[in-house]
Amino acid sequence: VRSLETANADLEVKIREWYEKQGPSPTRDYSNYFKIIEDLRDKILGATIDNSKIVLQVDNARLAADDF
């Protein structure tokens, strides 16, 4: 019986160590990236608006050129 208890304790230790290695990793803190992401989104939005303005100007120039 004692040898079974010893073997069982060894198995429990091995299982615990395996779960510590294979278990879910600790969650990472990405909060310092949120400001960078927000700035990049703002830049993308600004570039999209600028692009739309340029497309509108090109269309207006084409229409004006077609009138002549």
UniProtKB/TrEMBL annotation:
GO molecular function, a single term: structural molecule activity
Gene3D superfamilies, per database record: Vasodilator-stimulated phosphoprotein
GO cellular component: intermediate filament
Signal peptide: none
Domain IF rod: 1-68
The keyword Coiled coil belongs to this UniProt entry's keyword annotation: yes
Keywords on record: Coiled coil, Intermediate filament, Keratin, Phosphoprotein
Keyword Zinc: no
InterPro entries (UniProt xref): IF_rod_dom, Keratin_I
Gene Ontology biological-process annotations: epithelial cell differentiation; intermediate filament organization
Function: Involved in the organization of myofibers. Together with KRT8, helps to link the contractile apparatus to dystrophin at the costameres of striated muscle.
Protein's UniProt name: Keratin, type I cytoskeletal 19
Species this chain originates from: Anaxyrus americanus
